[in-house]
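User: Um, what's this?
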Amino acid sequence: MVQEQAVLSITPLAAERAREILTRYNKPNAAIRVFIKSGGCSGYQYGMAVDERELEGDTVTEMHGVRLVVDRMSLPLLAGSQVDWVENLMGGGFSVNNPNATSSCGCGHSFRTDGAKAPEGEGSGGCCSA
C-alpha cells in the first residue's frame, strides 16, 4: 500500500537533475528510489536508483515534479532528509542531508545514526580509506 506523506524532500536543483536523468533513461514517469543499505565506512550507505515500480510498504513523495520512493526498511533512517545536488571538483552528484545521522564519513555517502559501532560489513562499501 502506498502512503502519501512528505517524509523526504528534494531541492529544486536536485529535482531538475533528477528530471534530466529520467528523461535521459526515457522513463519520465519513473520515480527516484532513495534507500539505505549496510556498508560504507560509517555503517550505512545511501543509494538511489531510477525505479518504475512501487512496492507494498513504499512511501511516495512528489515534489518539484519528481516522485521519490522510500522502502519501509529505509524510511526510519531517512525520515526528514533532503536530497540535494552538489557540485565539487570531482563533478556533481546527489547528496542526502539527513537529520538522523549522528556522524558521517568524509565522503558524505555513509553515516551512523547513534554513534554506536557499525553493523557487520563496515567499510565494505569502499567509500573512504580506513
